[in-house]
Design brief:
The protein folds into 2 domains: 34-100; 109-170. The chain contains 1 helix and 12 strands, in the order ββαββββββββββ. It has one helix at residues 11-29; strands at residues 2-4, 7-9, 34-43, 58-63, 66-71, 83-88, 96-100, 109-113, 122-133, 136-149, 157-162, 168-170. The strands form 3 sheets. Strands 5-4-3-6-7 form a 5-stranded antiparallel beta sheet, with no helix packed on it. The radius of gyration is 27 Å and the shape is elongated.
């Protein structure tokens, strides 16, 4: 019998322990995706930061006793403590995919301007969201423009909505004919 640390250990136990360490080491280095629950631990920009600034959307994410910086490109200002799902691709800590489990905050206010300041064929909807982060409360405002056909008439019909990023969505079937 072999002796380790003052204890009697059989050869088969030593082999089993060695195999266990080897397997554990290989599992830790295996190239498969791992998914963890995490949280946003710090916001590294102010919501008033210009969207073109290099720090816009940069957060610290904490997961599995690790903290890494990650940039969200969803245009939403997230909050400290918000839950995220973190996938470590191919077990490479530098290849992360982070997704918020709640993708947006509810609007605090929606303002409808039917005449869009006098434009005869458009209306404007302004959506205001409040986010509290780093001890401050910020409001983010987004404008949506709705285009109409026959605006102001009995057969008025919304035909297009323009999103804050400039993308347009065609609308159909909003009136009965």
């Amino acid at each position: 019998m072999a002796q380790t640390n003052g204890q009697n250990t059989s050869l088969s136990q030593l082999i089993a322990q060695s195999v266990d360490r080897l397997v554990e080491s290989r599992i830790q280095k295996a190239t498969y995706d791992r998914t963890y629950a995490g949280i946003i631990s710090e916001i590294l920009f102010d919501p008033t930061t210009d969207i073109k600034d290099k720090n816009w959307g940069l957060y610290k994410i904490r997961f599995n006793s690790t903290e890494k910086q990650y940039r969200f490109l969803d245009g939403i200002v997230h909050q400290v403590g918000e839950r995220v799902s973190v996938t470590v691709c191919n077990n490479d800590i530098n290849r992360l995919v982070v997704e918020p489990t709640v993708k947006s905050t509810m609007p605090a206010k929606i303002k409808w301007d039917k005449n869009n300041g006098g434009d005869a064929d458009k209306s404007k909807m302004t959506v205001t969201r409040q986010v509290t982060t780093n001890g401050k409360t910020y409001e983010t405002v987004r404008e949506y423009i709705v285009d109409y056909k026959n605006k102001g008439q009995e057969n008025e019909e919304p035909v297009k909505i323009t999103l804050p990023n400039g993308n347009e969505i065609e609308l159909e079937g909003f009136i009965d004919e």
